[in-house]
Backbone:
């Protein structure tokens, strides 16, 4: 309609999570109407982030510093490492200021069906960190799926030789969650893990 | 969480139509995980489009050519001009290949409440095109709102001296639309504009 530049822009915007062809057209139009104030700043922010941001060589977090701002924050409790599947999960925990120790991003979970083995995950750097000493607890905050559970089981075995306390996040009824809309698996897990009231 | 570059990128992505803070974080993460294959191409597409795309000086369409690819397409019927409110409306008509003449993008509608007068719209270039001759019909494809209707009325008066046929797109029941969910205004317009069956 308006030349190859517009078609290409709409095509790339449509591939973003949460966007489709329709919203990509609306976004492209909005940007094209404000090239100086919206379009060029977004282009620069993308290029800056692509240039600056790299995975932290210690924990796998994405940051413009390496070691990342969490690993290099001396205020944090360096004796507790929380293992997460993805940087998105790390961001979720950080938004709630829920964990004051360090992290380790696995980059996935073991999956027999998906053909994901230990060598495909960010496991070796975690073992190096354990061997370095000073860690007293590893919290496994992995997804409550079959693959997440088998990854947690496998990691617990690998971490045992280091003599650390290995824990898992609790499963149960989400806060504010009505029982009648929960799936059976969650209800069963919440019942099994019942505690004195 | 990961430095100022990531925060800035999420902030700009969240301002796109159809995006919010949550989807902007997901989009940023997806892009950060594929800097070479997704992030830099999007940055380049934005910069290319911002550099190349300008409003057509004849019709107001956004294009990397001026006159735009529609105005310079000699296969199109140059005697019919379709007046639309926005480039988005032009794109919608072009997607359906519904109009084979030229366009004129007003860039808005007259609005007493919004303080939009004729001098705020792309009207003078339309009058120049009319004065240039060769136009036999002007189709007003403006929104079916109070402001759209008053703009159509005002434009019809301005176009009359040129001796052209001024028409409006029909209002009525949308194809596939059930009568019982339509608003009263649309139902009334459809009844008034009834035709022999």
Residues:
């Amino acid at each position: 309609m308006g030349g190859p530049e517009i078609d290409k822009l709409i095509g790339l915007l449509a591939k973003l999570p949460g966007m489709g062809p329709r919203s990509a057209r609306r976004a492209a139009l909005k940007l094209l109407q404000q090239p100086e104030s919206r379009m060029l700043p977004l282009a620069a922010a993308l290029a800056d982030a692509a240039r600056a941001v790299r995975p932290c060589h210690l924990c796998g977090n994405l940051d413009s510093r390496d070691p990342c701002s969490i690993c290099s924050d001396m205020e944090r409790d360096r004796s507790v490492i929380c293992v997460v599947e993805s940087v998105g999960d790390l961001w979720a925990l950080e938004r709630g200021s829920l964990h004051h120790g360090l992290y380790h991003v696995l980059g996935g979970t073991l999956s027999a069906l998906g053909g994901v083995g230990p060598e495909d995950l960010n496991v070796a750097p975690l073992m190096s960190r354990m061997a370095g000493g000073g860690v007293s607890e590893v919290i496994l905050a992995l997804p409550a799926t079959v693959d997440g559970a088998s990854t947690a089981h496998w990691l617990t075995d690998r971490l045992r030789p280091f003599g650390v306390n290995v824990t898992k996040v609790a499963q149960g009824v989400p806060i504010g969650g009505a029982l009648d809309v929960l799936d059976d698996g969650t209800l069963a897990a919440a019942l099994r893990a019942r505690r004195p009231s």
